[in-house]
Amino acid sequence: MFRDAALVAGKDLRLELRSRVGVAQVAPFALLMLILFAFALDPDRAVLQRATAGLYWVAVLFSALLAIQRAFAVESDEGVRDALRLSGLDPAGIFLGKVAAIAIQLLVLEVLLLGGVVVLYNAEPSGFALLVPTCLSATLGLAAAGCIYGVLAAGLRVKETILPLLLLPVLAPVLIAATQAFEAALGGATGEGWRWLGLLLVFAAAYVALGFGTFGLLLEES
Amino acid sequence: MVASTSSPGTRILGVAVGAGLAVLLLFALVLSPADAVQEETVRMFYVHVPTALIAFTAFFVTVGASVGYLVRRTEWWDIVAGASAEMGAVLLVATLVSGALWGRVTWGVYWTWDARLTLTALLFVLVLGYLAVRRLPLERGQRSRVSAVVGLLLAPTTIACHYATTWWRTLHQSQTVTTTDAKLDGLMLFTFALGMIVFGLLYGWLMIHRFRILWLENRVEDLSLDAAIADRLREAQPDAPRTSPTLTGSGIPGATG
Amino acid sequence: MVEVGVSRTRHQDRVRPPVRSSYAMELAVHFRGAVSFLGRFPALTGVDLDVGPGEVVLLRGPNGAGKTTLLRCCAALVRVSAGEAVVLGHELVGASAEVRRSLRRRVGLLGHGAGLYDELTVADNVTFWARAGGADPVDAEAAMVQLGLDGRLRHLAVGRLSAGQRRRTSLAVMLARRPALWLLDEPHAGLDQTGRDVIDRLILDARAAGVTVLIASHELDRAEAVATRTVTLVGGSVLGAPPTPGSARSPIAAPVDRAQDEVVDRVP
Fold first, then answer.
1. pLDDT tens track of chain A, all 222 residues?
2. Number of compact structural domains in chain A
3. Can you give the pTM of this predicted structure?
4. Distance, in angstroms, between A18 CA and closest chain C CA?
5. Does the residue C3 lie in any domain?
6. ipTM here
7. How many H helices and E strands in chain A?
8. Could you give the domains of chain B?
9. Domains in chain C: how many in total?
10. Does C115 touch chain A if contact means CB atoms closer than 8 Å?
């Protein structure tokens, strides 16, 4: 299974390297979101600074949606999906590989956004002991849940609209938890944040486990 | 030929529900006392809370039936899951609307971001997502399997949302206090219990009818598929002297007629 | 792909005729009265087909006759709802996911879609799909050489290739995996003379190697030259196929379940 996962992850990352959609489109979209927030929320410094954690994670969430859509758009061709089913790859391995590839892309995006937030909103990053694990576990949860619903939507004509509808409520806890953890980290009082990190870890573990169980069926039926 | 999905059982149930609603209205609006703090507006409570609780029950039924389908793979579980989700959505609308009206009258706001309400709103969106999946243009077996997985996934989502929203709102001051934990006794308790029973029966009655409709739709589809096989064979090979294979075993002859 | 309405296990118990005869097991493909649906459309309306190992069978018939569906059923990509269907010893009706996956490892399907990632190169695609199927990278290389894909074409993105080159890439993937059953859906379509010659040569090599091949094609002259047998599919079933003595004629022997009674019985 891990061999299959490595194979699929390698393939996805190579695809990204060749096509550069993540770099050329998703990353600029993420930065664009930060800019749009500034337009919407009166660049009176106080508002943006107070809301930094939340705005950051909203930007991550919507960029993740794009990244997941993209990751499964390459698999949306009927011939490719047939080939995946026929290939004899372990579905759990395919799941793990796709999660890994998406997670790596998202982490790069998050670092970029962190830079954006520091520059554009004058944030002062602190509390890295909490910040980094939060990013890692939230990203894993996002990627895992995203892959489950992504493969479900992949073969549908309405995939662009049904994926956000299904995925965003599922990711609401990640948004809440990650924002709270970030606020704790950025505010200097990290005591509160650990509980949220726990929630993120449980979420990520649960969805990875669920993905193992359900990805095969969804790939088959989509 | 039966022209409706009623049976003696459901007629009795339907009458019971109708009568129950009438009695409930009587008690809720007239006979039960006004609350000390909230006066007359508390009467909304007799609709708001039972619909909420029954909606949550419908939600659990959907999740449970989805698991049941994945284990047993019979049509029954699939139909129950779908029908229950529809009922749950309707009841949630009633809950949210009655809650909004109550809030407006009592505290001047239609909505507040406390844990319970937020969770209810999230659940509503989740059920809508599930219903959207049920409406996808897939083949029946495919749709059942995919819906069952989505239904199953509602469970961890709800748990995660519950913890997230509860922790979220206990860290901050809530502006208003929703006193649905008010002490109930005597006539108020009775009316509340009556509300629970009546809405529960309403749910059951609607479920039975909806189940039957969906079941019959599937049967009609099966029969039409048999006919489709026969038609196709007849068009293609009008001289072939054979009985066409069928799914329901009704042995439609391919060459006659 | 429609689930039969009655409880799945119950219906299967009543319906499935005994199939594990040694006759069925020796054949590469054995279909009796196989029915398959695409949505509400009965793509296969009762197919009777026996293919021995090493045969090259040409499936001909008008468009929409069900040739593609038949091939996809053999690859376990489409469910067979009723009847008997055994491919390479795998029972297809009511098959579990493991059985389907096990069968798929042994068949190669050349379908309408290329099954390739447009943005990756030929070499990337062949190595990925070959390794995914458990093949040796060496076999992948050999397959590319055999199909003339090494050299200039190696590092070209598949999206930039011509239809013929793409078809050759898909074939290379299939060859590298060395399947026991080849399912070719209109392999000659859209190819030039050279391309068609390549395909014919490959089929003849496969025949010599004992691989079973099912070809769906409209190119009757070419295909008939390489095929050992021709089968015609019309309206979802095989034209004029004589039933093999001793097999069940009608796949369903169960009494009719009346819809109304079902409702009253089943509703709690």
1. 888 999 999 999 999 988 888 888 899 999 999 999 888 887 676 788 888 889 999 999 999 999 999 999 888 888 898 899 988 888 999 999 999 999 999 999 999 999 998 888 887 887 788 889 999 999 999 999 999 999 999 888 888 899 999 999 999 999 999 999 988 888 777 777 888 999 999 999 999 999 999 998 899 887
2. 1
3. 0.83
4. 7
5. no
6. 0.88
7. 9, 0
8. 21-171+184-236 (1.20.120)
9. 1
10. yes
